[in-house]
Fold this protein.
Amino acid sequence: MDGGNLMVKFSVTGVEIGASDLGAIVEVDGEFLFPFGNGPNDILQRHRAALDGVDTFPASRVMEGGNRFEDAIRLWFEDDFNVAVTPPQRGYRNKNCNLVASLDGLIEEKEPFTITDHQGITHTLEGEGVVDFKCPTYKPEEPEALQYIFQVQGQMDCVGADWAIIAYLPRVNLEWVIAVTRRHRGMIKAIYEAVDTFWLHMKNDTDYPPATTTEANRLIGGNRRPEALDLVEGCPDDSPIDKNGRDELMNLAESYLAGVKTKKAGENLKEESQLAIQQIMNGVEKVDLPGVKIKWTTTEHKAKEETTKIVPAKPAYTGRRFSAKEVSDV
């Protein structure tokens, strides 16, 4: 592409996984991170759709802005830190798994140089490393967020580098927020395993176990039979649920119903307490108590004209609806 590295993505969705997807497919302590609400099944869905020529993840204006500003950010970084950053013109394929890294920049310094991170720690770096530029609206709360660390760990492994810089330039103040990370053998191993598992799901047309009830409603199909499976007295010989499953269902259903009761009791307590507080405060709008600040302020609402709400069309889909309630033995 002439004039820079604008919106270059070298990995092919549906054929290869990119380093930016690693934060969604690598498990951490048995759980997925769900960066920006995306879990591993969302990444699977995106890749499967791409094979059918459908883009389910178009770039938002904010994302597009980051891509369009990338060349200017790179040049600004070079000026501020006196280091040369090369925008790669190709993807870097991993030798150990089906992963391709599209880099924002590659740093190759023969002489050591220093850079200070967001914690005030000065790092001395030399040789080859990668830099990932991010242009968020506001200063990041977690400059070393795990999804970004996994992203640059994957980039480092594809390139063969030992260090990486995550360079944020928040639009709110245009002051650098720098994170430096080194190659981590354990994270690289977890990336290999995660990528292999991902492509095994792609090959077998299977999904990851649902992480939420919403995913379960979408991913686990029902038998569509009107009659209930009768497990009241035990498990019939042809039951798809065995005795252990029946026992576990009973325990989980009890826990679920207890949670419903606790939630309802909490909502009732909250409502009763709020009403009593409002009656005591009467016209007072703000009260400071030991360890508590209460506000019941006046708000003005402007009149609004009647409008007709247009609901966008949605394609048909199949899901499931869950409920559990107690029944009387009588």
About this structure: DSSP finds eight helices and nine strands in the chain. Residues 243-281 form the longest helix (39 residues).
